[in-house]
Write a structure and sequence with these properties.
313 residues; Spore Coat Polysaccharide Biosynthesis Protein SpsA, Chain A
């Protein structure tokens, strides 16, 4: 890398890679090495370290010292959680394009960003490019798999907001956005307290343009016991007792803040209301009276329609 190239990266990187890290000492070297291996594209790496306590901070500082023009290390003084950590990281973005990959995931092709940026540059009507990811289970409890599955992508190379209304095919460790928040603050457009926040970002960007799919496995999404979604598929009750209200808030925000009037009605009827009904059944079955009240307070309108949905009227 020439001195002029390094200077250009320092002042005007084409791509910003956002890497959220919390206690990722076991994984962060593999992650950062995979970023630094990217070729034929100028990029910066923002590592947002949420007050790690396991040595992650020292490792990232080592990389920042070794690559000061590329690796920018921001450390929270106290643990603030993924949502605020991400919001603060976004304040430092300088790239026109933004890639996401957390500190426990990594890229596996050295031309990932180059290919995705080329796709976005060649078609200004696109706002997102994503690819396949290999899912690995850190405890080897399940065999590796690839997402999204064939039935979801169905030989397609292009998706849109209407597709995201039905499902989220985008592994976040593969995504690149044509970043829409260059003159707007993320926190003014992404509501607090929602999950999954990345799904909401996909939908906000898809409102501005279509989504390209690169049919290659470019990244690894690691599932391990310290990950938020580690046992979502195998322990739905546990996950939704903890995060269900935040997911309902995501559905309501998507319907009311992103979608058009007609689509909003459809989405509330077919995504938000059914999910709220499932939450109520979960809370009743597990005796969580306080959560029933929280559900009602979250959105009285939706709550009042649950009996109709469950044919209890």
């Amino acid at each position: 890398m020439t001195a002029s190239t390094i200077a250009s990266i320092a002042t005007n990187p084409e791509v910003t890679i956002i890497c959220l890290a919390f206690n990722h000492a076991k994984f962060i070297r593999e992650c950062l090495d995979s970023f630094l291996a990217q070729k034929d594209v100028s990029f910066e790496i923002i590592v947002a370290d949420d007050a790690s306590t396991d040595g992650t901070t020292d490792i990232v500082r080592e990389y920042a010292d070794r690559h000061p023009q590329i690796v920018r290390h921001f450390v929270q003084t106290t643990n603030v959680g993924a949502e605020e950590n991400f919001t603060k990281a976004c304040q430092h973005i300088r790239g026109k394009y933004v890639a996401m990959c957390d500190g426990d995931d990594y890229f596996i092709t050295d031309d990932k960003l180059h290919k995705q940026i080329r796709i976005l540059k060649d078609d200004p009507s696109l706002s997102i490019c994503f690819s396949k990811a290999r899912i690995i289970y850190d405890d080897a409890s399940l065999s590796d798999e690839v997402a999204p599955k064939g039935s979801i992508i169905a030989n397609r190379s292009r998706f849109n907001l209407a597709d995201l209304m039905n499902t989220n095919p985008i592994p976040t460790c593969t995504v690149v956005y044509r970043w829409i928040f260059t003159e707007r603050r993320v926190e003014d457009h992404v509501p607090r307290g929602i999950l999954p926040g990345d799904y909401y970002l996909h939908m906000v960007h898809a409102r501005e343009g279509d989504i390209a799919f690169l049919d290659e496995v470019t990244s690894v999404y690691r599932r391990h016991s310290n990950g938020m979604w580690w046992d979502y598929d195998s322990n739905w009750d546990k996950q939704n007792l903890k995060h269900g209200i935040a997911e309902l808030k995501f559905h309501l925000a998507a319907a009311r803040r992103i979608l058009s009037d007609a689509d909003s009605v459809w989405y509330e009827e077919n995504r938000a209301l059914p999910f709220a009904a499932l939450l109520l059944l979960l809370y009743v079955r597990t005796g969580k009276v306080d959560m029933i009240k929280t559900l009602q307070d979250t959105d009285p309108k939706i709550f009042s329609r649950i009996p109709e949905r469950l044919n209890l009227n």
